[in-house]
Amino acid sequence: EQLFVGDQVLRITASDEEQITLLRVLGEQAELQVDFWRHPTSPGQPADLRVPFPSLQAVKIFLESNSISYSIMIEDVQELLDEEKKTMTKSRRVER
Amino acid sequence: STSTFDFASYHTIDEIYYWMDMLVDDHPSLVSKIQIGQSYENRPLYVLKFSTGGSNRSAIWLDTGIHSREWITQATGIWTANKIAKEYGQDPSVTAILDSMDIFFEIVTNPDGFAFTHSSNRMWRKTRSINPSSHCVGVDPNRNWDAGFGGPGASGNPCSETYHGPYANSEPEVKAIVDFVKNHGNIKAFVSIHSYSQLLFYPYGYTSTPVPDQKELDQISKKAVAALSSLYGTNYKYGSIITTIYQASGGTIDWTYNQGIKYSFTFELRDTGRYGFLLPAKEIVPTAQETWLALKVIMLHARNHPY
Questions:
Q1: What is the mean pLDDT of residues B75-89?
Q2: Which member of A76, B41, B42, B56 lies 3.0 to 4.6 Å from B112 by CB, making a disulfide possible if both were Cys?
Q3: What is the rounded distance in angstroms from the CA atom of residue A83 to the CA atom of residue B245?
Q4: SS3 content of chain A, % helix, strand, coil (to 5)
């Protein structure tokens, strides 16, 4: 089972077309293994990017050095997955 | 029975398939289950058929879950299928639709991917077919249709999440629908449901050329989005795929539109809580409820505007 401990989802807002191009370049860097949940489309529209824990530093440095604004949408993906699993297990146990 | 099923929870494929049988048992004169093919890993591809009789009536197609990790869509599909069955004979618009048209509903359009999200990788999006030339698995089934196949907005790299596959309809999950639509020949509306950008699209995605029916599709979208937003205030945008989000070739509804299915739409369901593909289960029912209002607008329009 693939775990996502420490992975974050960043909500990124590109301010112009140049930044959108940079984000696309970021997405194509295979070694970072980032995963666009919501792709960059147009300036001002949010894009959501899941970043594996080992790539977090590199990605954040890339964003900051290119003045691309972002916030952390999900702090730890695995925490949410654990929560989801717990809810499903609980639901199965409930007598109907 | 379906009355004790927990619609406010996410379920595995086995549970969903079992629930389908319960729905058929509960509504034998309205609902039947048909198999339209098999997935790459040989799972059955089931479609629920809602019909009040007649042979080869005009029909509406709905599907959810083609991108397996978009769990809110399969969950919304279950709730919606149940709603259709329950509302026939109660809700005048549902009754009117089903008195003249059939509804086909594929709830788990990508069963291999869905099973994989439950067993191995919750974030899996694609099919599970092996690409002989690569160590990367799977094809994006929403880039695999024969509409601008292989063009901009799809990737030729099997490791990409938007890999278009070796050729159009290479994925059995896609081919099964293509064959079904062609063989049926009388599908008048086709709605494919994704998540989570809160959008309602009509064609095209592979070209910026507007579809001939753009005006009408835009008006329907406006009405559908207004209905959806009226329940919880969820903010939706609408428009053609290429102008609203990005260029995407080989997409589902571009192919269906080119097949002559004028009322072809794609939803991106909600994420008001900003959880992306990890939308908490407590949002399933509200999401389904609001989507239902928009679906009714589209289905009723298709019913009232035969072509």
A1: 98
A2: B41
A3: 31
A4: 45, 25, 30
Verify whether the Cβ–Cβ distance B275 to A80 is below 8 Å: yes
What digits encode the pLDDT tens for the residues A73-86?
A: 999 999 999 999 99
Q: In the numeric block, which tokens belong to residue B216?
A: 């009408």
Closest residue in B to A37 (Cα–Cα): B276
If you average pLDDT over every residue of chain B, what do you get? Answer: 96
Over range B80-85, report the average pLDDT: 98
- Residues in chain B with CB shorter than 8 Å from the CB of A91 are 6, 8-9, 281
Using a CB-CB cut-off of 8 Å, the residues of chain B touching A50 are 123, 276
Residue B1: pLDDT over 80 = no
With an 8 Å Cβ cutoff, are B276 and A36 in contact?
Answer: no
- pLDDT above 60: residue A96: no
Residues 6+ apart with CB under 8 A from B222: B238
In angstroms, how far is the first alpha carbon of chain A from the final one?
Answer: 31
> Helical H runs in B109-188?
111-119, 172-184
